[in-house]
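Sequence in, structure out. Go.
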Amino acid sequence: MNTINLFKIALKAIAANKLRSFLTALGIIIGVASVIAMLAIGQGSKRSIRQQISEMGSNMIMIHPGADMRGGVRQDPSEMQTLKISDFEALRDEARFITAISPSVNSSGQFVSGNNNTPSTIYGINQDYLEIRQLEVEDGEMFTDQEIKTAAKVCLLGKTVVENLFPDGSDPIGKVVRFNSIPFRVIGVLKSKGYNSMGMDQDDLALAPYTTVMKRILAVTYLQGINCSAVTEEATDAAIEDITSILRRTHKLKDATETTEAEEDDFTIRSQEEMASMMNSTMNLLTILLGSVAGISLIVGGIGIMNIMYVSVTERTKEIGLRMSVGARGIDILSQFLIEAALLSISGGILGIVFGIGASFLIKILANMPIYIQPWSIFVSFGVCTFIGVFFGWYPAQKAARMNPIEAIRYE
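Output:
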């Protein structure tokens, strides 16, 4: 019996029980659609987070004071005063793998303009901060080196602060706003960046010269942090090593010797690459979890195929006996039922792909979730469903192939 005839017989058997065949394939349809949709959500979330981190500055390196032990009690790093202006200047002049560097100090408080007020945070930085954090000035201008030297009371506002302080839509450029009773002249407005992947409003901020925030708001002589940008993402590790070496020298930290251990760093260094790696591993785990849960429905669909094929073999026992009595071999009977099982799983897989892609876009529209359908997820889910159809169809098909034709003909 040739393959074409076997396909015809399998198609006739499926067509003879349309509803049952559809319900059998439904398990595969749901399984494939679930796998595609879940992987699309996982990959979409992963890409969204990576994009958000990239917008924050994929090459960014953040240096903060390190915690210290005093009287057996570990101190809060934010209270430490281990970073100085001299550290910033040494890194600016000596570090080889960075393209931009900015001191960082900040203070939270209330901005007031006329009868309007809003809580926000003012960051003391220099001009390089815009490049490091990929910020842009939409209106007005950035403050100058002279304004940094003189600790001028000027600032740039984020869009959220502007909307809260100037709800009538008036131009804030040139206006004077107060931050905790200290007047600041607005010289620029930052371009909107929206919310990041952690749900934080990136427009709820103000920028001012770091000298102004240090002297006029915080009254401190130390830095809360230093932000810099590596020349490339690949050079991030080299930049961190270089920064560590410079800061250990400026902080007079002793290296290890034969008799003594090295002094611990009194600063901490973190990079966006480190954060991106952590988030990627978390999202990969979540994607695997979602795909595994959805994959269970594929197994359930395969069991459904096995059950229906077993029923089909039982119902068609007499037909199998007749075919074998007129010359059909065991391999022909085996192939017939395997082809039938494969057709059910393949057709279910094709419909599952269509429904899975449709469900993914429906989730994007209704739930406003980021999705990304990777071609490999379609091919893998389709290949798995085909394998499942053949795998679970094998036992019923083998049972049919091993029947005794005389007993099969006499079966009632």
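Check: Residues 272-315 form the longest helix (44 residues). The two ends are 26 Å apart (CA to CA).
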